[in-house]
Design brief:
By secondary structure, the protein is of the alpha+beta class. It is 21% helix and 31% strand. The strands form 17 sheets. Strands 6-33-32-31 form a four-stranded antiparallel beta sheet, with no helix packed on it.
Amino acid sequence: MVDHAARGAAKKKMHLQLEESELRTLRIPSSAHRGALSPSKNSFLPTLQEQAREDRPQASLAIADRKQRSEAIVELEDDKRMGQGAAGPSPEQQVLTDISAELLESVKEDFMDMGGALTSEQFVKAMLRSLAPGEDKVRSGKVNFSASADEEVMPFAESGLRVSEPIKGAAKTSAVADLFSRVDVHGEGSVTWDEVSNYLIEQGMSGGDEFTVDSIKTYEASPVLDQSKHESSVEKLVYLEQIDSVVCLSHNSRSFRLYDPKRCVVKNEVFGHRGTVINCCYVDSFSQIATTSADMTICFWDSHLGLRNRMAAKDVQLCLQWDGLSRNLFSGSIDGTLSRWDLQTMSLADSRKGHHKKAINDLLMVEDINLLASASSDGSILMWDTATMKPKKTFKGHKKGTFSLAYSMDYHCLLTAGLDQEALVWNPYVERVPIFRLKGHTHALCGVTIVPGTPQILSADVAGTFRLWDMRTFRCVQSFGGNETQVNDLNTFCSMPSHHRVAAGGNRVILYDYMDEWGGESVTDTGSVTDALYNPNAGEFYTISKQTVKSWNANTGVLFKVLRDITKDEITAACLADNGRKLYLGDAKGRVQAHGLNNGAVLTNFEKHPADISCLAIWQGTNKVFSSSWDGTVKIHTDEGSRPPQVKAEFKNHKDGVTCLRCSPELLLLASGGTDMQVVLYDLKTMKFEHALSRFQHVIAGLDFLPHRCLLAVADQGGHVSFWRMRPHPDQWSCVFHFRNLPLINGVLPNVTEVPPAAQPIPVCALHFSEMPLTRVVEDEEGNKFEETLEGPMIYTADTKGVLRVWGLQQMCERKGLEEIDVKDLFNKQRSGKLQANMHRQASGVWGQQSRGVRLSNTPSPLPLTGPGNATPAGHGGAFLTGVDLEAEGSGRGYPKPAEGSSFRFASEDQEVQLLFEEEGHEDGGVVSMYKTDGPTAIMTCGLDRRVRTWDYKLGRLGTLLQSRDRHFVFPYDPAATRQNRLEEAAELMKRIGPLEPRTRLPALNPNGTRSPHDTLLSLAASGKGKPAKKKDGDAAWKATAEQAMKDDDDLDEENYRILFEQMDRDTSHRTAHDEAQDRLVTHARGKQAKQMSQRGTALSKDEASAADRLAKAMAALDGDEFGTYSTMAKSVRPRLRNDRSAMDEDTA
């Protein structure tokens, strides 16, 4: 009997071990870490080691995995790697991987020692000292991170280049400095421990999964509608992938319909049952449809929907499931009986009754473990062995009946739903509790399903509300349906993965389409692109569309991150912070917020506008943020970083919406243009209104300053571009020149200043100044080609036809006297009163008189028009003709170059404005915005054709940001050079930091000078109650022990103990009466607390009490029981015996 019991226990133990090893092979993603969860018997524990192993690429596994995948998937993965610009884990990722609990504890001590905050150099020094590997420590006890030529080098694979860098030198320093910049998102120059720990926690919690390109998108109501007539409500929808049809079963209907999933039309309606058709499944081996009905029969229909066989059952069968491995059909009946049917003999093979107390509502074959799952109205879920027809596992977690089952082959999770308002997620190996509860519905659920091959979970309730969940984090991604559609009393739904669609059944069939971000279109975004920005610090582009911000690699033009739904409403304006670490966004509700570029988290909420935000801008080098709205309000905020922001000024000088903003730090001016056809100027020093230019006849579309010439360029929707003198020039607020943006006529540009114009001007959307000289190839009369240098300044314009142009302004500046000016000198002269305005100088050509045909105003007109027979004002010469080759696509690598022999015809030398270059930038619509980029210098445009394109300064095409990837993308961003610059900066930082000193640790001290702790305990036990040492004796003991250790150990450095001695000297020499009084109060409070500590319920033995007493005396001798905690504890646990008079006397003493 004993042997039998022992064998049973051993067998059970072996079974548990096998089950445990089986559990360890299961991998479920965690919401707290990027790595997988390693399930234990009853829980899922995160393993950072697995995460680190997953982050480090394994070449052999990658090659084997490539062989099993399709070429399209491999190409997509290559694009992602190119988009991220790394061939493996970057040094920044490596530093995050190497962070451990011990390292964080060490760094935390540095924060505490420095008052809670560390500067950049202090943070780098603390991290490098903690990250220092053993081989970098020299015998002197110092760590040297200096780079040398003999150190190991790491290839940096980007753009096909190899850059050598020391693994343990500048690369690690650069990575730590990058970590500091990511934490110091506000650019305050220091970080606190809370900020560092919160950043690391956020990195671990998100892991970037929710920001990846292949993350879950959203569902929207499909334009395809069900036009068929339904006599009753839809009770069941089943998608049969084998025949690509949706089976629709209606209430009290003896027939079933087959729908086309693409067009949602009825292909066939099948009759044959004598009762209501309840459920169906597809039998692969026989290529037949099996249906069950209230007439207690199971019917089989062939590919032509003809009735082939009919089997009678004892009860009504509510669900069917085909098992291809055992080639059996399983059914669940209304009384809880599970039946197995042999289709070869068309008879009942086996049945089991009594395991489920109520009806079986759903069956699901879990092929991974070859078990059949059954869901019952009694709330239980059973896992059956299909061969023996015995339940192997039981899951109990629902309080009410269950009606729906789903299983994810990719994530090995079982999902169940029923009358409860939450769906449960189970580990099929763990029976006790579910691993997660999907909460959020307010009504009973009608089903749950997964989309194969994706992390999508779909659940729906009877009110028609769907919730989309991410299997990797169990986070709700979207809630849709409900009141948005006409589905009332939802009864069923099914997913159609091949069609990216979901069908829901209520009073009719409703379809929802999965909205993919690409959709096969060659565009930047399938929705309209609101704006596009470039971050030179990170080498990234950002495109804004609706409530989403997408990040693109500037080297490859590949999309690598998507921040979805980071605002509550549609984004209407965007601006990048000066430090390139955060993004200012304005939305349709008037909110202005600062978001972190790492995860899109809201960092700052600014004061709200009463209307939609129209523009955002910053004052570079300061913390000023400018915002404007469509009600004409302009606000100046200060971004105080971690402190609440402030509103420094608010202006309402516009009568209508503001369309554009531009700041000039050199001139201390802010300009705003609006739909009220005026430009308003604000003084940034006094934060007050300065001047208004109101002589415009069209809506202002673009503004830009040329500060060193005291100029402001204004573009309007009438196609006019005008130039205005700004302060502190004596001719301030006067218009010096204007021209029209006319189209080419037969390859020739008409006179852009004559009246009436030869053609209708094209409205200008945006403009930008540039003072960078350009070159072009010209041909003389003899046919010789030579390179000509074009001096600045120049102005770039973009119009509503999508055309980009470069205009030369050198002649205008020479003739109008618009020379470069020392702005600071002019400001000084203005303050001293030496600057005299001369508004009617003939040499400069400034217009001080009104022209005929223009309404009078105090502001000189920007549009001095001349008609036939009228004299041309000063500065307006004759017409100039310019021809351009419209077929030229650009000279960039990968794009078609201009054909040989094609030439440009430019204006004659006596014209003020010359058209230098022209290019059709956006074919299907106008330009939304245009920016100049720095590092490298280029032009970036965003168009109504949903494309963002980049250009060089001669309008040569550099590439387009496309979701399908532009193979000719050649934006001149060099990641290797950027990396090398960072390494050089890191090397300079290492020189400033110098050799790193390891953290000083207290030595192992001997109590009472030279005796060991063991000898001290023996002496205390022999002599009875010991006398506690004084504080000064304790300090002397520390010093004596340190001196003795230094004498005994030759490897120790005196530097290790110097800090210790200085600290002890400060502690003993700087004590005041206040400190002593505070110590007495703390001692009294601790003693009172120790007396109130809970006592042990049972008495200790004499040996235990003696040991506690010896411990208290030892701690007192070591000066470690300053508050008497150990002695009070020893008294409280001492046994109180009636005949132990000595103990009672000692307690009362």
